Amino acid sequence: DDDPALFGEKVTLKQQKLTVHYLCLLTSCGVYQRGKENEGILGFLVDDIRQEVRRSSHLTCVSCKKKGACVGCNVRSCRQMVHFPCGRNLSFISQFTEPFPSYCKNHAPSQSLSVDPNISLPQSCSVCLDSLDPVLSYSVLKCPSCHASWFHRDCVQRQAFSAGLFFFKCTLCNNKDRFQQEMLRMGIYIPERDASWELESDAYSDLLEVYKHCDSPSCLCEHGRSHSSIRGWFEVVRCCLCGSRGTHRKCSGLTLKTTDWACGDCTQATDGKGAAAVCEVRAPPRLFALVSQHGCCVVFFRPTLSDKSGSPEELLLCLGPQLHPGVAQVEVDGDQALSAGLDLVRRADFDATHLLSVNIVQDANAARQYFLKLLHQQIQDSVVFEGPCGSKNLALDAQALRDDLYFDVGCLLALCLVYGGPCLGFFSPGLYQCLFNYPPNCPLTLQTAFDLLPALLQISEAKSLEELRGVLEESWEFLQLAGCSRPVSSLEDNQNLVEDLVSFTMITRMQLPLQRFREGLQTLGVFKQVQLHPSVFYNKFCEAAVPLTAQTLGQLFSVHFSKQEAKLNREMVVVTFWRHFLLECEVGRCSVSLQDVLRFSTGAEELPAAGLLPAPSVSFLHHPESSADEGLFPQSRPESRSLHLPITSTYKAFKSCMEQAISHHVHLLPA
């Protein structure tokens, strides 16, 4: 076999009729490098090699049962002899450091797990990314520093052969010294040379070539498109943006002084000066529509994205998608809202601006709200987030990265905000700062790193230099992983160290999850809107929803009075009854709550982040002269957010009919 990564360089001496692998020479028990590098085969003299061939010709390999076994177990009491390639099949480990010992499977060194059993182990090789069984063995190794990088033996051996001594390091934590020592102990050969990509002749010569070709539709140069004079009309001017297109000055009508020409492709994407052009989409006013399972479609107009400040509800209203003919159907099986949402956004034909149709066992108006509320709760309980309830950070999960779950969850949260879901309210201040830089340009605080809070607290609260050094010594693996393994000369160094560790925990190691999560939040322009107004949206993302109050609920409804003076006078009285009724609901003097009133009148269990659309309204039910009993109870139309209050002469009668109607409605609702 001629596989330099696994067996070393294969060298042939034609005059001596001798062919050997370099690693077979290193691991043979009876041959030593007694010559110089240019003598024999890389310092192994030919006579010594022939003598080893004669010696091993009497030894039988325990694997293939053939003669010529030259590699033996280094334990004196063990008599196992193998060929070097056969030893790989029998899990022999050869250490490529002086004196190059080899060990059989029974005496070979091994690795220990030494990680928290609650931590999920990786399921793929960090080199080839293929799946692996996370059980340490001869064929599966791990990084001793981060414990998160697991790989196949053959994969890390090929990586070592390609990277060489100067570039071979862990693919995840970039640790070099400790990683190389452990790999040498476990039998990985690391050649003492530069990386293979640095040794290729003229490896970067393409970078020195200058594009010299005229791409004009009609070239006027008589010497052809590839001709470029030193100066003048037929000098090839390259695109100042991409550099991969060119033109003669004469062919594109340029002046002799023109040097900043831009090609057609770049001109379409930019303004010709290197800045991205702002493409204004000229479309009709935006429409936003949601369709329930029963075909109840609520459509209303919305403005385009605005950079003017306002309330969070007003800013979210600017993000309503433009109405499209298509419909995005969501099938919810039981309470599996998150699975249904992920299935939606992972469809090849998913379009966030299509109508959202929720198919779930609920009434027409409540189906959408129930789905969004359930989705909101299941997202914050998913593997993507960690930390205490109400103040969660992004969690680093390898499986979630492979499944691109961070992008999908960000997309679903954006849909929740725009399509009338509840306020998020569970982001930690640190996560909000990492995403939107608010408060701006402030270092992350210690309280943001919940998963490493005990270790960081010990470093921060150290009372003496000796105590600080002791804590650092106990946490040396974490410090090395974070790139903060440095000597401390005074107690004041701990604060800078804590800031660096928090930055590593929240930003450095989370760069890819944060990037994909941001890209998901860009759905329907949510990320851009929040980025423009981070202070306005802070409460929506980081603080729990404010309890519903009588004042808040009363301000939601616009009152539609009659134009007849007689009716108007009676309606003014009922409005005071209505406000007094809400106050009594707030303090518990009624048999119904403010939430019951909200559900009865609008169909919503809580106020959505984007507000209620259409805006709730109040009108009045007057007694017809022909029937004094008709219209004594309030009526609601949740699909249009309208509430009709009965006209009564006393507050007691008004309260009684309101309580009876709302209680009856609440008891009929499904659990």
Automatic annotation (TrEMBL):
All residue ranges annotated as the PHD-type domain in the record: 1-108
Database matches in PROSITE patterns: EPHD, HECT, ZF_PHD_1
GO molecular function: ubiquitin-protein transferase activity; zinc ion binding
Domain HECT: 595-671
Entries under Pfam families matching the protein: PHD_G2E3, zf-HC5HC2H
Claim: Plastid is one of the keywords in the record: no
Domain of life: Eukaryota
Keyword annotations of the record: Metal-binding, Transferase, Ubl conjugation pathway, Zinc, Zinc-finger
Natural source organism: Oryzias latipes (Japanese rice fish)
The protein's name: G2/M-phase specific E3 ubiquitin protein ligase
